[in-house]
Write a structure and sequence with these properties.
8-stranded mixed sheet, 5 helices, about 15% helix, about 300 residues, globular
């Protein structure tokens, strides 16, 4: 049984207006198949994500990342004490455990998942699976403090010179509690929504999926009725792009630069049948964060 490090990503899902159209889109883009009884997507028979019908048309069509916890109620209390809000209080969902939705001080929504019989991801960091998360915010100070207080995340500020950015570039890389902060243990990052972005852009979480070929993923997305929000760009960590699916859900794709620099984490940490699965990614994809998307 996988035991996820507290506060690290353990699942992602999207609620879609047209579930069957979503299955066709992601099935062709990522090679997913689907377990209709559980609203789950599979990659080579392994759990990789959830696709669900949207039951409330007022809610945005978006990808949500869920963070692991052993006690969703306790985390919900910490969220409120740290300046966040509970969008949805913890509620039981049968074999899926206990779920909740919270908003950080900048308005970005994250999920909480207290494990049940279903332990979330069975594969990460392989083409067609989750590999990274980014919190976008206009309030970096309060947001950094929030995640450190609620989840114990360890932060490291990215060096603008090392990232090939101008002075003042503000990006924070997050590692799980109990680790050594840095790229080797990182699972996500925090980016700033600057004045260069549309004023109406809210705080949000961007979910990354690994792909073999970033440009091909973009072409496939367009062919299937989706859109390219940020075109492919090379980074020290691979080639990345930000996309919208055929129903508007926003996500990013990352293709590793060479086979030698694979996204796969070491076997001892990636094997989800062992003691812990912190979902570490070897390096943060930070290249597109100083420019607004071409199509929002």
């Amino acid at each position: 049984m996988a035991v996820y490090t507290e506060g690290t990503p353990c699942w992602v899902d999207a609620q879609l207006p047209d579930l069957e159209a979503g299955k066709r889109f992601y099935g062709e883009l990522f090679g997913w198949t689907f377990d209709d009884d559980r609203d789950e997507a599979l990659l080579d028979g392994r759990r990789v994500a959830g696709l669900l019908p949207k039951r409330d048309g007022r809610m945005p069509t978006t990808w949500t990342v869920y963070l692991a916890t052993t006690d969703a109620g306790t985390v919900a209390a910490r969220v409120k004490a740290a300046g966040g809000q509970m969008v949805m209080e913890p509620y039981p969902v049968g074999p899926f455990g206990v779920l909740a939705l919270a908003a950080d001080p900048g308005g970005a929504v994250i999920g909480l998942r207290q494990s049940g019989d279903d332990d979330g991801f069975e594969v990460v960091n392989e083409p067609g699976s989750f590999c990274w998360m980014e919190v976008y915010t206009r309030r970096p100070g309060p947001v950094d403090t929030f995640y450190a207080s609620v989840f114990g995340w360890l932060g490291r500020q990215a060096d603008p010179a090392e990232e090939g950015k101008e002075p003042g570039f503000d990006y924070r890389v997050w590692s799980p509690p109990g680790s050594r902060a840095g790229d080797d243990s990182a699972f996500g990052g925090r980016a700033v929504i600057t004045d260069a972005f549309p004023a109406e852009m809210p705080g949000h979480v961007l979910v990354y999926f690994a792909v073999r070929d970033c440009d091909e993923a973009c072409a496939t997305t367009v062919r299937l009725g989706g859109r390219v929000a940020e075109p492919p760009a090379d980074t020290p960590y691979g080639r990345i792009a930000v996309l919208h699916d055929n129903q508007g859900a926003r996500f990013a794709v990352l293709a590793e630069p060479t086979p030698a620099d694979s996204l796969a984490v070491p076997r001892e940490s990636a094997a989800l049948s062992t003691d812990t699965a912190p979902l570490a990614a070897p390096a943060p994809p930070t290249s597109t964060l100083s420019e607004p998307p071409a199509d929002t």
